[in-house]
């Protein structure tokens, strides 16, 4: 009895460690998205999944990849190569019209100092492509 | 995409690459939109309170309820409570409250809020506060369908937080700088912090206050009332 309790503890804490990870929830969303998509392609298996991740999307690419590799078992992504493409933060100034790439999240225009800018990329979290093969 | 007809399919022997461009968080976005419809059906103005742990969300909420409860019918969804005790304190004020028990989750999502709202008497609520999980990272990715997203930044947390956690400030309509009674004891340059927040999100409003001394608190209550009135006018 005592032994079984002892055995359960590591599993629970392992799960909690993952469950606490932001990326774990993102992975759940990814798997659900893929499961929905592959319904349209019966008899095909996913060999590669390409994601477009903005550097300021709020997800750590390294952690996301680790979490995906771990949780893809038993999902349609089980045999798929996971590729993450990172997208820089790019803004377009609506006053001077210039575009700029930013290293940190500061949306002011580096050319004219305007706050009136538009984010072109860097926030996205997309499943970009799925590569499918006959099973 | 296929160059010939733009159909989104590229044939490479037996391999097929399908361009999908699906938003990974779309399910949450759908749910958030649905929540908003519910709120609007019942003419509820919903406010999402976000912050790091210990920035004073619960204290702010309690004082806010005291300031508004005689004028408005209020409801609360609690995501950030360790114990039922705090929820009980709110309940004793005569305010309907539902506590979400998230276990080890790091944020509330739209589905959790949806489930929670149906435990509240929606017909009897005008302003609904949702107290998010104490976390400056994860809640920023999950829209809840609320009308006003508020982030608290307390003086003891330090002035570098907007720069370190820009995303939560990016999604905030209002930033409350809390515990300003502690300004004399910390290296916290209020003007610099306001400037940093503006660089992240020029549209965000900023109010500095102390729930303890009451300084700035009127501004916050007035802000809610103005927003609520605007909202009601827009609906009618």
Provide structural commentary.
The complex is a heterodimer of chains A (135) and B (236). Chain A has one domain: hypothetical protein PF0899 fold (2-Layer Sandwich), CATH 3.30.2320.80. In chain A, 34% of the residues lie in helices and 31% in strands. In chain A, helix 3 links the parallel strand 1 and strand 2. A three-stranded mixed β-sheet of chain A has the order 2-1-6, with helices on one face. In chain A, strands 4-3-5 form a three-stranded antiparallel β-sheet, with no helix packed on it. Chain A has 135 residues and is α+β, with helices and mostly antiparallel strands. In chain A, helix 2 crosses helix 3. The N terminus of chain A is likely disordered. Chain A is built from three helices and six strands. Chain B is of the alpha/beta class and 236 residues long. Chain B has a single domain, classed as Rossmann fold (3-Layer(aba) Sandwich). Chain B contains eight helices and nine strands. In chain B, helix 1 runs parallel beside helix 4. Chain B is globular, with a radius of gyration of 20 Å. Chain B starts with 8 loop residues before the first strand and ends with a helix. At the A-B interface, helix 2, strand 1 and strand 6 of A face strand 2, helix 1, helix 6 and helix 7 of B.
